[in-house]
What we know:
Outer Surface Protein A, domain 3; eight-stranded mixed beta sheet; 12 helices; about 20% strand
Amino acid sequence: MTTLRPKLRRLDRHRLDRDGEALIVLRDPIGLADPVALPAEAGVILDLLDGERTAAQIRHTLLFRGGPRFDADEIEGLIEALAEAWLLDDDAFRERWAALHRDFIDAPLREPIYAGVLYPRDPAQLRGLWGALIGDPRVRRSSREEEALLGVVLPHQPFDQIGRILDLTLRRLPSPDSLDLIVLLGTDHHPGLTPFALTDKSYRTPLGVVQTDSSLVATLSERLPWVRREEIRHRQALSLELGATLIQALYPEARPPILPILCGQTAGVAGAGGEASDDFFAAMERELSGARVFWWTMAELCHAGLAYGRPPLTEDAADALTRHDHWLIEPLLCGRPDQLGRRLFAEDPVFGRASGGAALSTVARLLPVGYRGEMAWYEPFTPPGVERGLAGLVGLRLLAPGEAVR
Length: 406
């Protein structure tokens, strides 16, 4: 036994029915441990891992309550498995967390961890991919003095799988000298203990470093002391890594700095996330007032099918997902952030919640009053390596108030 009186860490629990088997999925909100699926009957043991009971006392408590009967070896085996998965609040986890946190904080840059996995690590291969997908980035920029495009929304999938979305969405972009800052909002699939997480680290890509506005991060950190408390969430931030790599591709020469923000599951919803969330929006409004900002959001819509813990796909699943997702983001296109938040965070029995709801509702609250949007492309998509599942992918263009969709 690793701990005499084991205590389960603060984890997110989700019920999952897979092939007739009821499971409990444990997810680490700070992303340091991989998700673990356990039989649903193990839930009564998890409830008793409070740091006050030994394994023997847990067994006797269950017997006294008349609950499920477990052998001592079964309880001890489960505790050992949780400890090995870094899911117990014990010395081993704290040492691991401290080492990982120290390594990340001490590193001068946020290093790419998905290069060579989801997109080419070799610079020549990556340049070739960009040439095939977007061509010369300079021809994608607006020549007008006043830029109409305020931002874009893109999915965080392998680039070679979403070429059409990239092509249709990334058009008439503002020139780099017309911008002071690119705010890069990313979906955090590990919801975190705080609604938002910032880092002052610049993001390295295979083709160069995308600089973070460290002075702005410092200012926001003074106003929001909690905003970098979970900075290590950026270590595995797939959405931000792909977003930074796209920004580097579209602006290969001198570019404005970025402000990379991870959005947890409570981020962006009015009243959710408590006082911290409200303080974040107030601080962003104050610090970015008058700045020429481009809003770059990496988010997806709903996910359907057994692969995502939802009901099995039906014959018309793709059409049903399309209709649902279009209804979901209609308020975003019409500039109604309050209605958007209610739709994004409603729990649908078939499609659940929008995967990128936090990032989408956040950008909607940060955009100026009167903005409008247009849908460049939408498709229900089966991600590589996923069976029996569909993801709603969308490319959106966010326009300044008074601009017509063209």
